[in-house]
Amino acid sequence: MFRAGRRKKQFLSQEATEAILRRGLAGVLGVHGDDGYPYAVPISYVYEGGKIYLHSANSGHKLDSIRRDDKVSFCVIDQDQVVPEELTTYFRSAIVFGRARIVEEPEVKRHALELLGQKYSAAFPEKIAASITREWAAVTVVEIVVDHMSGKEAIELVAMREKVLPSTNDSNE
Questions:
Q1: What does the DSSP assignment read for 12-42?
Q2: What is the Cα–Cα distance from 134 to 90, expressed in whole angstroms?
Q3: What are 124's strand-pairing partners?
């Protein structure tokens, strides 16, 4: 169903890919937009247990698109170091394909908003709780259930990593 990558040595393990999703601060959500055009929008998000949560206003292009077609993609760039003298970029990223839904259950919505608050404003728990209460009716939470994910990094990063710690993972050959 999902395409296999061409450069197997550059693909990251499931654990490394999930680590990118956990530590990333922003991602790009891709949906089936208006008139057949893709719509990609940068968002704040949180990843937990095979699901991505994001918050949104109660209306707009993103939610209209998800209501029309729940299949989405999501990308997080973990590293993007331009190396001009080598005419390349040392990159590391994760791509997710999944199904999005608008969360209706109050307990799931609250949990997702608390996770988002902890990720971006952990030092201010009282402000997080107050904001959730104050903005409850004005915010929508979207949950993406991951169907497939892959992570990939530049071949130069693979080489650097293997010099430090020789690989014992034959599946990355």
A1: PPHHHHHHHHHH-S-EEEEEE-GGG-EEEEE
A2: 43
A3: none
For residues 94 and 151, the answer to whether their CB atoms sit within 8 Å is yes
**pTM listed for this prediction:** 0.87
Note the residue count of the chain.
173
Nearest to 169 by CA among 19, 50, 10, 23: 10
CA distance 157 to 131: 41
Sign of CA dihedral 128, 93, 79, 62: negative
**Token digits of residue 41:** 């929008």
CA 135 to chain CA centroid, nearest Å? 24
Distance between CA atoms of 29 and 39, rounded to whole angstroms? Answer: 8
**Segment 41-80, tens digit of pLDDT:** 999 999 999 999 999 999 999 999 999 999 999 999 998 9
User: Cα separation of 87 and 100, whole Å?
Assistant: 37
Distance of CA 11 to the CA centre of its chain: 17
